[in-house]
Design goal:
It comes from Skermanella aerolata. InterPro entries: SAM-dependent_MTases_sf. This is Methyltransferase type 11 domain-containing protein. The chain is α/β, with parallel strands linked by helices and 230 residues long. 35% of the residues lie in helices and 22% in strands. The protein has a seven-stranded mixed β-sheet with strand order 3-2-1-4-5-9-8, sandwiched between helices. It has a two-stranded antiparallel sheet with strand order 6-7. Strand 8 and strand 9 form a beta hairpin.
Length: 230
């Protein structure tokens, strides 16, 4: 994930009522993982790639403390200082050189993989997810859902790239301000690469795949691995 992309993710994750409902539902999977780890070792070390402290307000502080949870938030830009259960780590989520293999219990990442760059970067990111912990939770918006959540337009991500660049150059789209130059518009468009199910499975072949639905449509994909370390 580039620094420029990282600077927009927090804005795009601004809570909405619908978004909050989905995140509350997702929290069930994460609680199950935390509970399993705590039962095994009496604590739980989480590394959140591209994460924010605000996201973890989904969980009651008393619950996180009762499970002795500690959370490392990884971002390419400095985003905060150590506070309570949270530690901030400035690093590339595709190459977290500061962390050894299986140095955490759970890798968590919410709406980040689509921001890290091209396919080779996505593969590197997925490799880090699998390397850093035996359990992981990865969520990403689904390419075939008709509404693009970053630019907040229906069918936007299905348009030719040249059309998307032109629109970003001319208009503010969602929380993404109009770009003054074609170069800036190109960068904005290339910061988001949504995945379909086949691509997502390729990145996380050992995970359970969960389709998060809104009415008849698959809205998001979740890759879940909640098995104990070998």
């Amino acid at each position: 994930m580039t620094a420029q992309a990282a600077s927009t993710i927090g804005i795009e994750r601004t809570p909405s009522n619908l978004g909050q409902r989905f995140r509350a539902r997702r929290s069930t999977y994460i609680r199950q993982m935390i509970d399993a780890v705590h039962a095994e070792r009496g604590s739980c070390r989480i590394i959140d790639l591209g994460g924010t402290e605000h996201y973890w307000r989904l969980f009651e502080p008393a619950y996180l403390h009762s499970k002795n949870v500690s959370i490392v938030l990884v971002n390419p830009l400095p985003t905060g200082t150590t506070s309570g259960i949270f530690t901030y780590l400035q690093a590339d989520a595709c190459n977290v050189t500061q962390a050894a293999d299986n140095s955490y219990d759970i890798v968590h990442t919410n709406s980040t993989v689509e921001h890290v760059g091209d396919w080779s970067r996505m593969k590197a990111f997925a490799g880090e997810v699998r390397r850093l912990a035996p359990r992981y939770y990865v969520q990403t918006p689904y390419f075939w859902f008709p509404y693009e959540p970053h630019f907040r337009l229906p069918f936007f991500h299905w348009l030719p790239r040249s059309t998307r660049v032109h629109l970003q150059h001319q208009f503010t789209l969602g929380h993404r301000q109009r770009r003054e130059t074609i170069d800036e518009a190109m960068q904005s468009i290339e910061e988001v690469r949504l995945l379909d199910m086949a691509q997502f499975k390729c990145l996380f072949p050992c995970a359970q795949m969960i389709r998060e639905r809104l009415f008849p449509f698959t809205k998001s994909l979740i890759a879940l691995k909640n098995s104990p370390p070998a």
